[in-house]
Specification:
Blueprint (H helix, E strand, L loop, with lengths): L2 E7 L6 H9 L6 E6 L6 H8 L4 E4 L5 H15 L4 E5 L3 E3 L3 H8 L5 E7 L8 H9 L4 H6 L7 E3 L7 E5 H7 L11 H11 L4 E11 L7 H6 L1 H11 L5 H21 L5 H13 L1 H11 L8
Parallel strand pairs: 1-2, 1-4, 2-3, 6-9
Antiparallel strand pairs: 4-8, 5-9, 7-9
Helix pairs in contact: 10-11, 10-12, 11-12
């Protein structure tokens, strides 16, 4: 099997050495591709000096997480990849992670390992939340003594570590460029659901994600309202009445935040709705494109 690991980097020196050494220690070989989003630290020189066999795509501008991954995914598919592993720069595989994912793969579903925190002592906070949101029977299986199954279907799982069979890429393509950073994985999962592609977490496979709840919290919070509106606007599983209902609920949440700590205000909601109105053609075309199968945005 040809397995290509795509890592999008941006000022990655804090994590990258450990991330790449974990890949070297993997019991399954993988060709690593780094797409660097114009780092201003020593990321590029570090990779070129210490890992000369790694294919590096140095960008002249910061493409964001999704479009950076698209560069690597496109290259992997051109090389005839059977699988593409998306891996964050701050994520560390266990030696048998890739082997366990490949052994569990049915060739048509997207897989994730269990995502742990940085030192592997507990679940990643966001992974724990998404696990509970997915309403799996995992807790029941554990607490009733039934035993843990090999895999559980998930509604959502962070793209910190995704094993994507080539068939998934051929049917769904890459990330939507409307999402610069954060939200692109949620949008991608909506498209998978629309096309009948399942997502599973493989319980025997583990990895560590060395971050807080959202990685760069300032970046996450700064764009959250825009992302939330955009995710709804682009969701191919929703009709117009459902989207309008979500917009109204978001307005109510803005009022709640305003009363609580001022993080969001209704005027910010109006600004986002105005943006959506003035870009409705772009968003509508994007949503219609996502309903088609193919190597979208690659």
């Amino acid at each position: 099997m040809k397995i290509y690991t795509v890592i999008v980097t941006y000022n990655a020196m804090r994590w990258l050495g450990r991330c790449l050494e974990c890949l070297k220690a993997s019991t399954v070989d993988t060709s690593t591709v780094i797409v660097d989003n114009k780092s201003t630290d020593d990321t590029l020189s570090f990779v070129r000096e210490n890992y000369p066999d790694i294919m590096v795509f140095a960008q002249e501008e910061n493409l964001g997480f999704g479009q950076g991954n698209n560069v690597g995914i496109r290259y992997a598919m051109e090389q005839g990849a059977d699988y593409v592993l998306l891996l964050n720069q701050d994520a560390y595989l266990f030696p048998d992670t890739l082997r366990l994912l490949c052994e569990a793969s049915d060739g048509v579903s997207l897989l994730s390992p269990v995502q742990m925190n940085g030192d592997g002592s507990a679940l990643d906070k966001m992974f724990r939340f998404l696990l509970s949101e997915s309403e799996t029977s995992l807790a029941d299986d554990v607490l009733t003594g039934k035993g843990v199954r090999d895999a559980y279907e998930m509604r959502r799982v962070s793209a910190a570590c995704w094993l994507m069979p080539a068939s998934v890429v051929r049917n769904v393509g890459g990330f939507n460029p409307l999402f610069f950073h954060y939200g692109e994985d949620d949008n991608y999962l909506c498209r998978l659901h629309y096309h009948g592609i399942k997502v599973f977490v493989v319980t025997a496979a583990k990895m560590s994600h060395d971050r807080g709840e959202h990685g760069n919290v300032n970046v996450f919070n700064a764009g959250k309202l825009h992302r939330d509106i955009l995710k709804v606007a682009c969701d191919v599983n929703m009709g117009l009445p459902q989207r309008l209902k979500c917009y109204v609920r978001r307005l109510y949440e803005c009022y709640a935040w305003d009363l609580r700590d001022g993080r969001y205000v209704p005027f910010a909601w109006l600004g986002q709705m105005w943006w959506l109105l003035t870009h409705r053609g772009l968003v509508s075309k994007s949503r219609e494109k996502e309903k088609t199968k193919g190597m979208l945005w690659l």
